Automatic annotation (TrEMBL):
Phylogenetic classification of the source organism: Bacteria, Pseudomonadati, Pseudomonadota, Alphaproteobacteria, Hyphomicrobiales
Keywords: Amino-acid transport, Cell membrane, Membrane, Transmembrane, Transmembrane helix, Transport
Protein name per the record: Amino acid ABC transporter permease
InterPro entries associated with the record: AA_ABC_transptr_permease_3TM, ArtM/GltK/GlnP/TcyL/YhdX-like, MetI-like, MetI-like_sf
Transmembrane segments: 20-46, 53-75, 87-106, 148-168, 188-209
Subcellular localization: Cell inner membrane; Cell membrane
Membrane topology type: Multi-pass membrane protein
ABC transmembrane type-1 domain boundaries: 18-206
């Protein structure tokens, strides 16, 4: 039978894993945004080489499961002489995986903009840099915001995989609590509730940012 006391105890124990979950997710999306912008630029480039590199990058990171990417990052870096803590390897794996999805989100948003806007800007003598910073990027960010918030929510859920490399986040904490208390149901329900609370907060933040950018 479900025990409320065991659930509350598990909830408090699992809360210790929340910081790691947030660190992996937020730093992962930050890396995804930065690298994704570069990959998007390559995908939209006039250079066939850059377009091919971007296509290969996107195909690899979208085609290989994140769990496999995480394990590759964790075991490959020491082989090439780069010794980093498990948290760094996890953030890099999550961020690089996210970059492929972010690149496609931004590419779709930019392609959705009317081409006439850029052509009109060129006609009145605006420089390419000004066209991008004042016309294209603000609209692309506004169009892509819902998808980017959704990507962050997906990263929060995907961050459960970093428990494979020993990081003490919500999922690993729930496994430990289930083993220690012999109450797996309460431990995993508590984990689900924590993920739900985090993602509901992120969704609310996304709606707020949408209203602000639409104003």
């Amino acid at each position: 039978m479900f025990s409320l006391n065991a659930f509350v105890k598990s909830f408090h124990a699992l809360a210790l894993g929340v910081p790691s979950t947030l660190i992996v997710s937020l730093l992962g999306i930050a890396i995804g945004l930065l690298v994704g912008a570069l990959i998007c630029a390559g995908a939209l480039s006039l250079s066939p080489v850059l377009r091919r590199v971007a296509a290969v990058w996107i195909s690899f990171f979208r085609g290989v499961p994140l769990m496999v990417q995480l394990l590759l990052m964790f075991y490959l870096l020491p082989v090439v002489g780069i010794n980093v803590p498990p948290m760094v390897a996890a953030v890099l794996a999550v961020g690089l995986c996210s970059s492929a999805y972010v690149a496609e989100i931004w590419r779709g948003a930019i392609n959705a903009l009317p081409r006439g806007q850029a052509e009109a800007a060129v006609a009145i003598g605006m420089l390419p840099r000004s066209i991008w910073t004042r016309i294209i990027l603000p609209q692309a960010v506004r169009l892509s915001l819902p998808a980017l918030v959704n990507e962050l929510i997906l990263l929060v859920k995907a961050s459960s995989l970093v428990s494979l490399v020993g990081i003490w986040e919500i999922t690993r904490a729930s496994q430990a609590e289930a083993g220690a208390s012999y109450r797996p149901l309460e431990a995993y329900v508590a984990a689900g509730c924590l993920y739900l609370v985090i993602n509901l907060c992120l969704a609310a933040l996304g709606r707020y940012l949408e209203r602000r950018t639409a104003a």
